Amino acid sequence: MNEFTTSSCSKVISVNPSQKTVGAIKSGILSSMARRCRPIELNIRTMRLKTLVNIISGINKNVNMVMSGKLLLARCLAGALLICFATFNGFTSHASWFAFGIGLAFVIGFQTRITATLSALALLIVSVFKFFPDISIINASSADIFFGKMAAGIPLSWVECILTALIFTTLAFFGPGRYSADQIIRRKTFKAIKRNASNRIRRQRKQRAQNRMSYKAFLTE
After folding, report:
1. CA-CA distance, 130 to 64, in Å (whole number)?
2. Residue 102 burial (CB < 10 Å; 0-12/13-18/19+)?
3. pLDDT at 101 over 50
């Protein structure tokens, strides 16, 4: 029943798989275009995710082993000083606990860029409180009181706070290097991104294969 008489306003569904209709031809063109364009989109998406991970971790292909060794030494020195500061103060203030946590993060290289950036911002705020010690706390907010107590617990002048903030800014700019926990997290993240991209491509290939193997009826014009 490939051919039968119908009215001019009727639409006929093709039931012969050997004959391609107009809709089937257009579907094939669209499928070929999707096969050419889709890998590029996936690569762009993967590259964007990897760039974001590099920005957050502070590690990229330009950081070699020699530079990573220097960054490891700088991190360990800064972390050791902060841990010693917290130990000598006996953990009697919030500043001591913050210094211990930041120092430990620097030593192992965990979230170094984020930790160093936040520490630099906090020290800049503390330097303002030290430069203006007569700030009234009558109408102060809870944040002002918190930073005021932190400034009182840090035995540094406002100049020394700014210099320490510059050191933290330098660590945030160069990142932790390859000898760090951030590098391990970065590698695992890249493997997860690659695995997800491969699974996505595999599912799409399977779906296209199923579409080729199955017969679909199209309306003829």
Report:
1. 40
2. buried
3. yes
Could you tell me which residues are beta bridge partners of residue 125? Answer: none
Q: What is the DSSP letter of 141?
A: -
Query: CA 161, CA 106: separation in Å to the nearest integer?
Result: 18
Residue the block writes with tokens 């290939």? 205
The span from the CA of 66 to the CA of 32, in Å, is 48
**What is residue 99's three-state secondary structure?**
helix
pLDDT tens digits for range 63-85: 888 989 999 999 999 999 999 98
Residue 91, SS3 per DSSP: coil
The verdict on pTM exceeding 0.85 is no
Long-range contacts of 137-140, Cβ-Cβ distance < 8 Å, separation of 24 or more: none
The Cα 86–Cα 96 span in angstroms is: 4
